[in-house]
Amino acid sequence: MNPQASTSPLSYDVMIIGAGPAGMAAAHRAARHQLNVLLLDEQPEVGGQIYRSINSTDPQREAILGPDYRHGHALAAQVAEHVAAGRLTYWPNTAVWQVDTDKTLHVLRDNRPVTVQAQAIIVASGAMERPFPVPGWTLPGVMTAGAGQILLKSASLVPSEPVVLAGCGPLLYLLAVQYLRAGVKIRAILDTTAGTDWKLAWRHGRGLLKGWRYAHKGLSMLREIKNAEVPFYRGIEDLRLEGTDALERVRFSADGRQHSLDAKLCLLHQGVVPNTQITWSLRAEHEWDTDQLCWVPTLTEWCELSVPGIYVAGDGASIGGALVAALQGDLAALGVLRQLNPTGHAGLWQEAATLRAEIASHLAIRPFLNRQYRPRDAFRIPEDDVLVCRCEEVTAGSIREQVALGCTGPNQTKSFSRCGMGPCQGRMCGLTVTEVIAQASGQSPQDVGYYRIRPPIKALTLGQLAQIDP
C-alpha cells in the first residue's frame, strides 16, 4: 500500500465532470455563487471536443476552424479567472473511472488514484460519434470525422492524401469546409441522406424560422463546398470500403449507378449521440429517443437525474450543440444551488425560466435536423457479415443467431459472445447491438435495453488499483 494514497477523500460542494462548453459554463455559474467547485477533465486543457485546444491554438488554425470555435475563448477566460482567484479548482489530465450514487468520484489524476466527494455532481461528458457499421469500416485508413477534427484542433494535422468524406450531418460539412481552408484535397463527399423532404421542411417551418441562423450557417457551408467544386454524391446507398491490408477503394451506388473511388483515407460520420457511460453506470433511468435514435438520460427540469444530487448538462443529456450545452451548464448549476440552499437565492427561478426559454429557442430547429439527417436503417443496422463489435470481432449475423436462440438483450449477447466486453466497453457497438436485437426480435429498442455498465468506466492498471486506500 502506498502511504501517500492513504488520505481522507477531498470534499467539494459540487464536482463537474468535463470541461467542454457545458462544464465550463456550470463551473463559472457555481463559482460566481461562491460554491466550492472542482472542475475536472481528461484533456490537458479546457475546451472539450468543440473548443479543443482553445487556449493554445494559433491564428492560422483559428481561421481554419471558423467563428463558432472562437466562442470558446470567453468561457475559457472565465474559468481561468476563477482559477487564478482561487474560486475554482481545476484538474486537467484526470479520468473518472467510477461514480457512486453517494456523490463519490474515483479518478485517475496524473495516473494516480484519487477519491473525491461532493454534495452534488454535474456530468458534462458530452457526445460521441454514432457507430457507422458498414463493410470495411475496421480497415486501416478508415476513421471518423471526429477523429479527423481532433487531429486538426489539437495538432494541426491534416491528411496528405485526398480524402473521402462519407455520411450525413452538419459535422461532415463543417469538416469539409475546414479541410478546404487548410488546403486538403477532398476526393469526394458521399452524402447518405435521402435528400430534403420539402413537406417535412414545411411542417417544421416555424422551427426553421426560429433557427434561421443555423440554417443560414449550413447553407453557407454547402455553398463553400460547391464553390470549391468538390465532387458531391447524394442519396448514397450500399457503401463499401474495400482493401486487402488497408483501404484501397470506396464503392457505393448513387442515382441508380455503381461508383468506385480509389482512396487511401475515408472519414465516416452519421451524427453524434450522448455519451451515457457514466449515467448508465449509476443505474439512472434512460429512454430511447425515437427522433435522435439513441439513449438519453431521464432528467428533471433542473437537469437532475433519477439519482438525486447528480445532474447532466450538454450533449450528454441530448444533442443540442455548443451554445445549448453552455446554457444547460448554467441551468444545472442553478439546480445545484437550489439543492444546497432552496430558499437562499432570490431570483433563481426567474433565471432558470429565462435559461429554459433561451434553450428552447436554440432547439427549435432540432426536430427538422433530426429528420433531415436521420441515419438510414441500412447504415445503423448492418447485414450479417458486417462486424458490429470491433473489439471482440462479433458480427451482426452472430447477434441475430443469438436472438434466434432466445437472447432478449445486450447483456445476454455479452455473455454469449463477449460483444461489448472489449476496451471500448460497448461505446462503439452498444447502439447497434440494441437496434439489431430490436429488429431481429420484433421488440422496441426501449424494451431491448442497453448494456449494464460497470466500473471501471475507464481502464486502470492493477498497480493503480493497489494504491487505493480501502
TrEMBL record:
<dbReference type="InterPro" id="IPR023753">
    <property type="entry name" value="FAD/NAD-binding_dom"/>
</dbReference>
<feature type="domain" description="FAD/NAD(P)-binding">
    <location>
        <begin position="12"/>
        <end position="328"/>
    </location>
</feature>
<dbReference type="InterPro" id="IPR036188">
    <property type="entry name" value="FAD/NAD-bd_sf"/>
</dbReference>
<dbReference type="InterPro" id="IPR041117">
    <property type="entry name" value="SoxA_A3"/>
</dbReference>
<protein>
    <submittedName>
        <fullName>NAD(P)/FAD-dependent oxidoreductase</fullName>
    </submittedName>
</protein>
<dbReference type="InterPro" id="IPR041854">
    <property type="entry name" value="BFD-like_2Fe2S-bd_dom_sf"/>
</dbReference>
<keyword id="KW-0560">Oxidoreductase</keyword>
<dbReference type="InterPro" id="IPR051691">
    <property type="entry name" value="Metab_Enz_Cyan_OpOx_G3PDH"/>
</dbReference>
<dbReference type="InterPro" id="IPR017224">
    <property type="entry name" value="Opine_Oxase_asu/HCN_bsu"/>
</dbReference>
<feature type="domain" description="SoxA A3">
    <location>
        <begin position="388"/>
        <end position="466"/>
    </location>
</feature>
<dbReference type="Pfam" id="PF17806">
    <property type="entry name" value="SO_alpha_A3"/>
</dbReference>
<dbReference type="Pfam" id="PF07992">
    <property type="entry name" value="Pyr_redox_2"/>
</dbReference>
